[in-house]
Amino acid sequence: MFGFLRQRRRASFLAANPVDDALWQTAIDLPLFIGLTAPERQRLREHAAWFLHTKTITPLHGLELNEQARVILAAQAVLPIMNLDFDAYDDWSEVVVYPGQFLSRDRYTDHIGLVHEYEQHLAGQARPEGPVLLSWLDVSQSPWLDGWNVVIHEFAHKLDMRNGDANGRPPLHAGMDASEWKTAFSQAYNQLVRLAEYNMYSPIDLYAAESPAECFAVFSEYFFETPHALVTHYPRIYEQLKLFYRQDPVKRLPAVRYRPAFEPLDLGPAIPTPVPGGWA
Ligand SMILES: [Zn+2]
Question: Which residue ranges traverse the bilayer (predicted)?
Answer without folding.
Answer: none
